[in-house]
Amino acid sequence: MSDPCSFSEPEDCICTYIKWFVDVLFDKHILDCRAELDFEVKGNGVKNLVLDTRDITVKQVNNDAGEILKYSFGGAHKAFGTPLNIELPNAMKRDSKLHISISYQTSKTASAAQWLTPEQTAGKKHPYFFTQCQAIHARSLMPCQDTPSVKTPYQAEITVPKDLVALMSAIGTGNRVHPQNPEKVTFTFTQKVAIPSYLIALVVGALVSQDVGPRSKVWTEKEMLEMSAWEFAEVESQLSTAEQITFKYVWGRYDLLILPPSFPYGGMENPCLTFVTPTLLVGKGGGRPLTSVSNSNFHTILRPNRAGI
């Protein structure tokens, strides 16, 4: 049964891997991107690939042979965005592979994106950016099959101003100075576990970290680091207890990101990096009464097939 909230047609072509290349442009409040998507063809004689988008400007679409592919947008829907229709040069046979590269930019009004001014942060010196893709907002960040029925691993390269740090719902694999612009740095990430699109998450800010366990850090602005590290000092014992009751934690890292006060949720169970509100920070006199929010999040994501459900 197809997802009524998605234009995509995974019964014809289903996405199996995503590579995402992003330049975060704070001055324009947009992301300049390239998405490389791998598909397995499920239908026979497939001539058209349909992806979900919302307020995305496409520059060019190519296949793995480098051919420029024709594309068009369907009618816009107030809630669900706009379908992106990509014409395939040859009718695709069942069980064949398809690789598509899409160069595009997001909109200033992307529904998954939150841009904060320096005044809206704890440090008051640097801007801040974070995403919230649940429930169907990933389509405003990249053309994708934005339905929880499609789960994929992903890799990403995120380029940001040199004074800032990028984090994702994935394992960080390093960073390097951008070869064309020494004022920027590129962070790389890998998520090996297949996840639905709404669990793709990105944050960029003046972030620092402190270990709170052998597989956990807290990440936040330096002004909140000491309190955050104390508040979540018991995360390893909580995680170990959850494993004893249920299953082994498969995501590798369980880090916590304490966001600025404008984060509109108690927490979000993004893999490898749970987003939590700073209203959970009670302090040493309070006895950590609100860390159950993080507990419920890692219970939710303990198993990959239960992620976010």
Q: Strand share of the residues?
A: 35-45%
What summary fits the major beta sheet?
7 strands, mixed
In percent, how helical is the residue content? under 10%
Mean pLDDT: 92
The dominant shape is globular
Provide the spatial order of strands within the biggest beta sheet.
4-7-2-1-10-13-12
Terminal-residue CA separation: 18 Å
Number of strands: 19
- The radius of gyration over CA amounts to 20 Å
Stretches with pLDDT under 50, minimum 5 residues: 304-309
Q: Provide a count of the helices.
A: 3
Describe this structure in words.
The protein has 309 residues and is mainly β. Helices cover 9% and strands 42% of the residues. It is built from 3 helices and 19 strands. The chain has a 7-stranded mixed beta sheet, with no helix packed on it. β5 and β6 (82-92) form a beta hairpin. α2 packs across α3. The longest helix is centred in the last third of the chain and has 11 residues, at 235-245. The protein is globular and about 65 Å long. Residues 241-284 form the Peptidase M1 membrane alanine aminopeptidase domain. Its cofactor is Zn(2+).
